[in-house]
Amino acid sequence: MTDSSVDPAVSLLPWPARIEIQNETVRLGAGFAFELPAGYEYLVGAAGRAGGQGDFPVRVRVRDAASVLPQLGQDESYTLLVSRDGAELEAATQWGAMHGLTTLVQLQQEGWAPCCRIEDTPRFAWRGLMLDPARHFLSIETLHRVLDGMALMKLNVLHLHLTDDQGFRFESLRYPRLASEQHYSQVELRKLVDKAARRGIRVVPEFDMPGHVTSWLTAYPEWGSRPVAATDRFGVHDGCLNPASEEVYQAVGALLKECVQVFPDVYLHMGGDEVSGRWWREDPGVETLMRREGLADTAAVQAYFNTRVANQLALLGRRLIAWDEVLNGTAPEGCLIQSWRGATARDRALAAGHDCIVSSGYYLDLHYPADVHHAYDPGASSAALLAAEDALLDDPRLAHVADGMRWTSAWREAARGEVKAAVLGAEACLWSELVTDEILDPRLWSRLPAVADRFWSAAEVRDTNSLYRRLENMLDVLDQERVARVTEISDALLLRAGVLEHQLPLVRLLEPVKWYGRLLGEVALKARIEGREMPQARPYKVSTPLDRPVDALLPESLAAREFVAAIEDPQAFTTPLTRWRDIAGGNDWLEELQPSADALGVVFEALLDVFGGADVQAARERVTAVAEPQGEYILAVVIPVLDWLDTQ
Ligand code: ACM
């Protein structure tokens, strides 16, 4: 077994570049006995369950120690040989050795491992996760846990979106009024960076500017064009830093100077997304600036602002990252672009000579199924990326939001010219409008392994069944490592939200509606689809409690996959399904779940009828009738059940 074909007996995630599995398994007994070079003993802990109390010898060799701090492009390759005599792990750097250890940990199954030889190296050098503690704060303990999980799936960049309209989470000693009540102290962040570095993970901070700065302006109103109140609503805000104010550049410079003292990575993210421009158009000071500098429009004003900030960062020895909107004007030279507004943003960056990291396709807050993210390849051709986007519009699981998604085709803008730069990698993003510390685990880990697989493994690793098998194994690893108990936490939160114990198996078959369906709400969604100005009113704001069943659900129901497998054996499934039908028909449901329970009842009843020999077409019509969302809930089982009925 070689290269990228995936052996069902092995559940490695990400899948290695090259693996040869012998026809022999070896007993690990009580576990591993590690022989590590002096100074690297900590790698065993970073690799998790490896334990180290056993007697199966694992000899680890690190050829050239890398610097203490991980860097973009570091050698992360390793070679792992498992034989009857023990395991030999060789890597160029300590980071490669750690990856080899996480692979070894995943190879063992109930005290056995296959004899094998693995030669592994990542496909992309930048394999990131962006978290947004600005909208809802995420505790520092949570971030530490996230690092543990990232290391297990070989992710190597934690991008922290530290500031936004609703919150400022960095302790500035120079501007003490900036930090929100809940924030990270510099000491806490330094410790986080240290822990990350020991796992080969770079921490990249983002200070989003010149838009998304309401929290800055409530503390220092003189940095904007007009007074602004604190906000707890979501969506684009008008508040902007004043690009005509020298005081603003001084403040930004001082802030960035503090930032680079805490975050040693060479990259620093300055945001740049969703700048409203309205204040600038109405500010006589900005008008004067535009005349003086020959700036034609607000995109040019933003480009001027970006260049001033980029120059300051260059003096601090740092390189700039920004969201793809900075391509609307001339982006600063050498600026790394993070593409998020669809497939073409990547190619516009590359054609403009900017290296790129890809995030469109990896927004975990959209509640998409894992295979959707996995099918989107950061390195695919332009045509293949556009086809992957178009495929979303035809995906029956996303049909309820297809009209909204179609709106984003307005972002499509063909790249002009040759590719003059490289895709360095990609980042998953979990925006936190609808995420809190408490519900992070079901929201994050349920699909992150699929993305990690895509960022590391060969483009040819595409098999969906293998993906889900390996993803579920990774959820077990996360559980055993005490990083996250995804399904248990989801269940516990559902019970706390008022779901009754006997209803759990049914509620696990529900999912939250996809895309921005929940966040926008029906009225704003309709306006967006129809191209009208969206009303500001939304169903959610920062203070809205996220304690309902819809908040506790897995974004993609894993139970639905088991349900679909069970249908294949009607005889065995009839008894449990009859019980579930009765539970669905019970009178003890929470009001907001009643329509979903009724709809599930319809699906169960229709299946039972077909099991009993009833007309398939009639059953199909009954199930189709409950395919639409019930409020913020959808029935994950409807589409696979319809598919199954089609085969009957
Ligand atoms: C973004 O999603 N506003 C970068």
Task: Describe the 3D structure.
This protein is of the alpha/beta class. The chain has 25 helices and 18 strands. Among the domains are: 18-120, 2-Layer Sandwich (Chitobiase, domain 2); 205-334, TIM Barrel (Alpha-Beta Barrel), CATH 3.20.20.80; 489-513 and 545-646, no CATH class. 40% of the residues lie in helices and 14% in strands. The strands form four sheets. An eight-stranded parallel beta sheet has the order 11-8-7-16-15-14-13-12. It has a six-stranded mixed beta sheet with strand order 1-6-4-5-3-2, covered by helices on one side. It has a two-stranded antiparallel sheet with strand order 9-10. α10 links the parallel β14 and β15. Bound molecules: acetamide.
The strands making up the biggest β-sheet line up spatially as 11-8-7-16-15-14-13-12
Number of strands: 18
CATH topology-level name of the domain at 205-334 = TIM Barrel
The best one-word shape is: globular
Ligand kinds = acetamide
Low-confidence stretches: none
Radius of gyration: 26 Å
Number of helices: 25
- Average the pLDDT over all residues and give the rounded result: 95
Major sheet size, sense and barrel closure: 8 strands, parallel
CATH architecture of the domain at 205-334: Alpha-Beta Barrel
Helix content: 25-40%
Q: Report the span from N to C terminus.
A: 36 Å
CATH class designation of the domain at 205-334: Alpha Beta
Helix/strand class: alpha/beta
Q: What proportion of the residues form beta strands (DSSP E)?
A: 5-15%
The CATH fourth-level homologous superfamily of the domain at 205-334: Glycosidases
